[in-house]
Design brief:
375 residues, TIM Barrel, eight-stranded parallel sheet
């Protein structure tokens, strides 16, 4: 076992506010992790990411395994030095690519063989190799290799997939070396079936991990079904360990999940949306490409501490996106990550003050009430 300190400072219903202390610093929870798949949060410098208030970023084992390679990153001093990020890093194990790159992989009970989407070369990823790669990167939080079960899947398919992932989780645990401030998280699978989710959680607890993730969601099932899976899963996870909902999500998904006791999130949505002209606001998402913004002198958020949100007009952002200028992607991605981090800070404050339900009701009503606001 490794040594990862997790303290809970406040409860409000099922929600918790606290801190995770890692080898590279603290993570304030609930936390949103900007996604830096290939050792970069797309379109942003690490200084910009830090300025949003992000404590931790997520990188992807599969993509870094292919390019530039784990051994090269290790030789260059590890992932933190390589990307010039001195805060905590979590790496996904490649389990999501088992699903998303199904046409480029062969799956068996011992692991997965990928055909590189870059050059067609063959790469074998086993539980032990997935752990080895993440330890070569030198990350703070590593994830077990799992099979991200696609949606929809019938119960027998979901059960077989989950039990394979549980066998892999045990192999990852055995291979992981650990260390002070470093951790290996297990991943609960089981599709949309409560009994399978409970079985998966129990198996992972029997193995023993520093944190527990809920995987296999945000894959097309819709918010209501996702939340019902959380309702059936989170009560079976240890109270004294961090809980991480993988790949989620939209701002209202995050608020609803925090209410159910989730501590950590990641999603490509803020940066992917930023590159395509979507900005998140308290009044809902807006498409800055829309013609109504062409003459709008207002910033995205005049009260924000983020320069991208505060110092540029919607008209200028509209122009940048329409002209396909790189700066447009940078500013909107910066704004969106800042919006997410402000939401997490507000959630932490609401939990600490014992007013999460009131905050959630106000936020969700305003967020869901409108979009494409002009002026």
């Amino acid at each position: 076992m490794s040594d990862l300190a997790f303290t809970i400072a406040a409860h409000d219903g099922a929600a918790r506010a606290g801190e995770i202390e890692t080898a590279h610093g603290r993570i304030r929870t609930p936390a949103f992790m900007p996604v830096g798949t290939a050792a970069t949060v797309k379109a942003l410098t690490v200084d910009q990411v830090r300025a949003t208030g992000a404590d931790i970023v997520l990188c992807n084992t599969y993509h870094l395994m292919l390019r530039p390679g784990a051994e090269r990153i290790a030789a260059l001093g590890g992932l933190h030095r390589f990307m010039n990020w001195d805060g905590p890093i979590l790496t996904d194990s490649g389990g999501f690519q088992v699903m998303s790159l199904a046409k480029l992989r062969k799956l068996d009970d011992d692991g997965v063989t990928f055909q590189s989407h870059i050059d067609g070369s063959t790469h074998r990823l086993t539980p032990a190799r997935a752990v080895e790669l993440q330890q070569l990167f030198g990350v703070d939080i590593a994830m077990v290799l799992d099979e991200c079960t696609p949606y929809p899947s019938d119960q027998n398919t979901a059960a077989h997939s989950m039990r394979r992932s549980m066998a892999w989780a045990a192999q990852c645990r055995a291979a992981y070396q650990g260390g002070v401030g470093r951790a290996l998280f297990g991943i609960v699978q089981g599709g949309i079936y409560p009994a399978l989710r409970q079985e998966s959680a129990n198996r992972l607890i029997d193995i023993g991990f520093e944190g527990y993730a809920v995987g296999g969601l945000a894959v097309g099932e819709g918010q209501d079904e996702m939340l019902s899976v959380l309702d059936a899963t989170v009560p079976h996870l240890p109270q004294d360990r961090p809980r991480y909902l993988m790949g989620v999500g939209k701002p209202d998904d995050i608020v609803e999940s925090v209410r159910r006791g989730i501590d950590m999130f990641d999603c490509v949505l803020p940066t992917r949306s930023g590159r395509t002209g979507q900005a998140f606001t308290r009044d809902g998402p807006i498409n800055i490409r829309n013609a109504g913004f062409a003459g709008d002198p207002a910033p995205l958020d005049a009260a924000s501490d983020c320069p991208a949100s505060r110092d540029y007009s919607r008209a200028y952002l509209h122009h940048l996106i329409k002209a396909k200028e790189i700066l447009g992607a940078t500013l909107l991605s910066w704004h969106n990550i800042s919006f997410y981090q402000r939401l997490m800070a507000d959630l932490r404050a609401a939990i600490a003050a014992g007013r999460l339900e009131a905050f959630a009701a106000d936020f969700l009503a305003q967020y869901r009430s409108g979009s494409d606001t002009v002026g």
